[in-house]
Design brief:
The complex is a heterodimer of chains A (541) and B (168). Chain A has 541 residues and is mainly α. Helices cover 59% and strands 1% of the residues of chain A. Chain A is built from 25 helices and 4 strands. In chain A, helix 3 crosses helix 10 and helix 11 packs across helix 14. Chain A is elongated and about 95 Å long. Chain B has 168 residues and is α+β, with helices and mostly antiparallel strands. Chain B has 2 domains: 1-42; 53-163, Rieske Iron-sulfur Protein, CATH 2.102.10.10. In chain B, 23% of the residues lie in helices and 37% in strands. In chain B, the strands form 3 sheets. In chain B, strands 5-6-7-8 form a 4-stranded antiparallel β-sheet, with no helix packed on it. Chain B is elongated, with a radius of gyration of 30 Å. The chains are: A mainly alpha (541), B alpha+beta (168). Chains A and B meet through helix 3, helix 4, helix 5, helix 10 and helix 16 of A and helix 1, strand 2 and strand 3 of B.
Chain lengths: 541, 168
Amino acid sequence: MRHVLDWIESRTGLETMVKHFLYEDIPASAGWHQVFGSVALFLFLIQVFTGAMLAFNYAPTPGEAYNSLKYVVTELTGGTLIRGLHHWGASTMIVVVVLHMLQVFIWGAYKKPREATWMVGVILLMLTMAFGLTGYLLPWDNRAYWGTVVTTQIAGLAPGAGPYVQRLMGAENGVGVVTFARFYAMHTLLLPLIMVAIIAFHVYLVRKHGVTPAPGDNAPKKKFFPEQVYKDTVAVFLTFLVLFTLAAVVKVPLGRLADPTDTSYIPRPEWYFLFLFQLLKFFEGKMEVVGAVILPNLAIVALFLVPFIDRGKVMRVTQRTMAMAVVVAAAIGWSALTVAAVRSTPAQTEVDVTLAEPAPETVAWASLSPEELAGLGYFRAEKCGTCHAVGSGPAKKGPDLSGTAGKRDASWLIGHFKNPQSHVPGSAMPAVNLPAAQLNALAAFLLKLTPQTATVLMASPEAAVDGAMVYQQNRCGTCHQVNGVGMKLGPPMNGLAKRRDRKWVEGHFLDPQKFSPGTVMPPYRLSPGELDRLTTYLMSL
Amino acid sequence: MSETQGSDRNLSRRRWYIGAIYGLQAMMGAALAIPAAVYLLFPPKLKKEDHWVETADLAKLTPGTPEEVVFRRDRVDGWKVSSEKASAWVVKKNDAEVIAFSPQCTHLGCAFRWEARTKTFLCPCHTSNFSLDGKVVDGPAPRPLDQYQVKIEGTKVLLGPIRVSPEA
């Protein structure tokens, strides 16, 4: 064994290198307060590992990202844990990086000759945030989509550079496939490479200047290994324990598939960006650019230049009142903005699709949104079933639609309806000539079809489907919710039959004021047939 | 306190540090490696139910004459479920018994055809020959033809998953 090790050492010098690394001289005063850098590095490695694990089962396109992530968290053993580690790892990393900077600041470790180490550290903080920002989009659920819409809009506000930054983000024409591809490439290709290079440079600088001694520490130096390595390892372990517990216990939700037409979704950024979000509220109109771009950038520049703003030689905390006051003020400001943002956040009604899904048998028409159910109406009205089988029955001319949910997205389907040959060259399908809202509904319905649910859904009762079509054509969802979809201006429609009788509901449509004085609901001039179908549908919810 | 005692204490503290470093690192390594291995190696939780597909009408089949039927079936592929074209060679034995062969030769997977003249299934690639009940007559094929599971409901022939034949 020794023989082999000697050979490796003589040919590679690995042992010398490791020893050189471990037996570095560090000040006698080094200790528990200097563990944060190692913990941050460890968390980065966790992100690399769990990120690669996720990528093993992830399809990075808007059409499939969501489905594949859903597969990871619902079907793969350990998938939830891996995703949890990656999600909470990001938050933990932000916390630890900030703690690391705080420690360096309080100990005055950014001062001469370590200015460059600090500045490179600030770049690492920015990179960590860039990881958070780009990774946020990748689940492609409503949270991801709408969060990124806001981010890219803010980027567009930058004076002069705005449009170019937006173009760089692939978000000139809104968040879409190009944005997704760029965020994914940044998150998994470019940022990790840059991060590794800059971490290496940061560590090199730490080694070049040595670990900062406490003021007045003139004692003989000690070795990095094993005492400090032990302290670093204990800190890493405790952090890992917290992270692992978070990942195992706190569920990371996966919302509904990103829906650009969902006007009811209220986006909020990740917690560590909430202060920026709240800051925006203080600036209106033309001043918005101040809160959105100028102030944050000034803060970054100030942070970067800390070693030059504070050039005093004193290191002792007690003699640096001004610097400490700045830290305290920043902490209070950040906390106040974050708390205000959290308090102003309405409780989300967003569903978590990773929670136990209803068994296929019970997925019936009643669980569909009115739009989806109306889509079945258009499916029937346009006689799509003439050429397409759905689940059961013999094969037909066109492809079976029972697996649509796993294969297509709404934009593909709608494009295909409008011009079948552009999406499927040589297709014999005629174009579907319906207004946009109805094409949306048709696509929404088809996207509900899986081989397990198709047969049941196709058999939805006519009365309900017809009622849902009336509901959708009259845009009832602008004020009411069914199955959690729609706005909450008026009362939700689920459980209506328990609250009102049929006569009341019918009368209410024709003259709302008579039944609910003061209501903002306008009267609806529905034909007797429409009235009957709509009421039947709503009473059965 | 003698100097030896002092350095003994140092030595045992040093041992404790090193032991703790290795121990904690091993625990973290295991806490990451085990879930990752499970994640990569365990099959998906989704129970793949046997989907039965209606393929042929018993009344329209002639006993003893194989017929190739084409149908669509679902294929579960990771997060995707796709509907794909499949075919089978269906042989009606009598009104209660039908066998359905997977259309691929058990040698190297070529598509075989029915030779009415010799009453065998002939694979054009390496001339494996199979009898009407799927047994190897001659050629390099290592085992009889694979068969679909078959269910008969009324006059409908339903096909389930393919069962691989054991090596001869």
